[in-house]
């Protein structure tokens, strides 16, 4: 059984930074794409960052240049470093695996329980 556990969410002032972490069990990095999606109220979870199975990073236009995905195979974990946060980044963030598409919700096989990120002015 695949389990993904996120941590690192919280509240931050606009312009600040946060790093989210995800640790997987029952899944090995390289088995599928890994990434992060975020969900606004009433909407689907939209993938904003991917580290593909082939080793390429992708970002949605809204976060490119501000967010960075990284991983540790040794820890079976991946991370989302978020900087220059804006109020528009306020959402629930989920780590995900699957065949992922930036800007889409499709292709997600597994996701964690989610962590709230709130950006205030």
List keywords for this structure.
0% helix; 121 residues; single chain; seven-stranded mixed beta sheet; four-stranded antiparallel beta sheet; mainly beta
Secondary-structure blueprint:
Blueprint: E1 3-7, E2 10-13, E3 18-25, E4 33-39, E5 46-51, E6 57-59, E7 67-72, E8 77-82, E9 91-98, E10 108-111, E11 115-120
Parallel strand pairs: 2-11
Antiparallel strand pairs: 1-3, 3-8, 4-5, 4-9, 5-6, 7-8, 9-10, 9-11
Word description of this protein:
The chain is mainly β. Helix content is about 0%, strand content about 50%. It is built from no helices and 11 strands. The protein has strands at about 5, 10-15, 20-25, 35-40, 45-50, 55-60, 65-70, 75-80, 90-100, 110, 115-120. A hairpin with a 4-residue loop joins strand 7 and strand 8. The termini are far apart.
- Residues in helix, %: under 10%
What are the low-pLDDT stretches, counting only 5+ consecutive residues below 50? Answer: none
SSE order, as H and E? Answer: EEEEEEEEEEE
What is the mean predicted local confidence, pLDDT?
97
Q: Characterize the biggest β-sheet.
A: 7 strands, mixed
Give the strand content: over 45%
SS summary, helix count:
0
Beta strand count: 11
Radius of gyration: 13 Å
Spatial shape: globular
Q: Report how far apart the termini are.
A: 40 Å
Derived from helix and strand composition plus strand pairing, the structural class reads mainly beta
